[in-house]
Specification:
Blueprint (H helix, E strand, L loop, with lengths): L5 E2 L6 E5 L2 E4 H22 L12 H26 L2 H6 L14 H19 L3 H25 L16 E2 L12 H22 L8 H18 L17 H23 L10
Parallel strand pairs: 1-4
Antiparallel strand pairs: 2-3
Amino acid sequence: MPFLLIDFPAFKPIAIEIGPFAIRWYALAYICGIVFGWLYARSLLKKERLWSGPAPMSLVQIDDFILWVTLGIILGGRTGYVLFYNLPFFIDHPAAIFKLWEGGMSFHGGFLGCVVAVMWFAYRNRISILSLGDITTAVAPVGLLLGRIANFINGELWGRATDPSLPWAMIFPNDPSQLPRHPSQLYEAGMEGILLFTVLAVMIRFGALKRPGMILGAFILIYGLTRIAGEHFREPDVQLGFLWGGLTMGMLLSIPMLIVGLMLIVLAIRRGAPKPAGAIS
């Protein structure tokens, strides 16, 4: 092995094990992402200065919403993976759809599941769909960061082959070709998690939550950009490979996000911030 290559750390697939009870890293990432996201959402709702008047929903409502968004993430993520990434296999093996412990989740499917959860919950509770979307996407990078780190720990979704002289190139133990590759999971963790969270947090600091739909649009746009950038370093799914013009499925699914995100930002700017109750126009 060239001396510049980094040995892939020997992680155990199970994070916590107590007798017959075991939690794998990927499940732990989902659990921690949801819990930390919930706590962050509550902290944002407690700060009235971030909104134009009182927050658009109560702490009790955001507590109730956690179950809805969790179901949206899981059901949407699995459905998206089945439809977008491996439909022929699941048509032949329908029982495998329910084997979540074997992996296979799609961000784009999970995002659509969250959209359904947001719209349904907002309608039933008479909450602004855009404001609930803002809160949901403001905390989403926490889960994305932890999810990508779990991908790295599991040694899955590795990057494209690269020159062995790249100081941080790695050989992943599950890679049948045993080539030095980009640790693209860490690239995506940095862009989709740390970078995206930081940008949204700065926007919130400067009053973006006062314009419903602004954070939602920024999340969709920036995620689309970072996902497309990350796909340039990530090995395409083996069952799909490269598609039209060298694009990957992740790139194709992210292109509509750029359009939708930009539209939401423009509409939020044109709409402006709602006036506090009792304000004189």
